[in-house]
Design a protein that fits this description.
binds FE2/S2 (inorganic) cluster, 2Fe-2S, mainly alpha, 72 residues, single chain
């Protein structure tokens, strides 16, 4: 479904951009050009952004071992 008519961008394309690292409206604006003209798509784009980030798997942070804090 088209979410930004001015730029012809679909929700699928927004999801792909988020999954590839565009994790903010500013990043999506720079990457896809969404919300740069009439800005009527802002609410829809923000919803797709939020839903995609919420659905993303959580990546565990690596353990920090005591050796990490020793000076060389
Ligand atoms: Fe996205 Fe107009 S619909 S800028």
């Amino acid at each position: 479904m088209y979410v930004c008519l001015c730029k012809g961008v679909t929700d699928t394309r927004v999801r792909e951009a988020v999954q590839q690292g565009a994790h903010s409206m500013a990043a999506l604006r720079a990457e896809l050009g969404v919300c740069t003209e009439c800005k009527k798509c802002a609410v829809s784009i923000n919803g797709v952004l939020r839903d995609t980030l919420m659905a993303a798997p959580v990546v565990a942070a690596p353990l920090c071992l005591p050796e990490c804090h020793t000076s060389v």
